[in-house]
Amino acid sequence: MQLWDFHTHQSGKECAIFNHLAPFSWTSSPCSMGIHPWYLDLHWEQKLIQIQAASQTSDQVVAIGEAGFDRIKGPEISLQKGAFYAQARWASALDIPLILHCVKGHDLLLEYLKSEKNPPAIIWHGWNQKPELAKQLLSFPVYFSFGKHLLQEHSNATEWLKGCPIDRLFFETDDSGLEIDSIYRAASLILRLPVEKLARQAVFNWNTISKRKIR
Description:
Elements: E1 5-8, E2 16-20, E3 31-33, H1 44-57, E4 61-70, H2 77-94, E5 98-103, H3 106-115, E6 122-124, H4 131-135, E7 142-146, H5 156-163, E8 169-171, H6 180-191, H7 195-209
Helix pairs in contact: 1-2
InterPro entries: Metal_Hydrolase, TatD-like
Organism: Algoriphagus aquatilis
Keywords: Hydrolase
């Protein structure tokens, strides 16, 4: 049984989407490429050109990201919005998901979603926000990737997983150093569903929203 890890910083893993950082180049395994708000500067458009070239060359670039908003460690908001909107347009053009990094930027995401007629599928990685915030996003193509916070019994992630539509969920290790099977097992216990069913559902969810399929 294959347990896909939909967002990881650990390279060399099978059945995983590796978060590829600059310099962006050709890749032979599934990855995402994006301009993280932590590393955003005035020259971000040059990095976007590299991402566009790499993602046109290789179908192994299966997502754009991390991209998003960060009011704690990111630069000025106007710069973040410009880079995010451009990356979202590119993800939409390729018909692949965008992996979202969002810290205290829920309002900025909603602003984008309400103004954009053709947003890509957006996967909010490492979801650990209140369920009430998640419910505000369900009318848009927003999905939720759950990770290490599922190992905390009363976390926001655990609470939202219980109510999250099953066709909106994914699982990840991010930079935690955990093995992905521990995340699936935690989700299995919370939802009282077999790990195998969750694994199949997550792959189905991906292949429903992305032109670049996984198996």
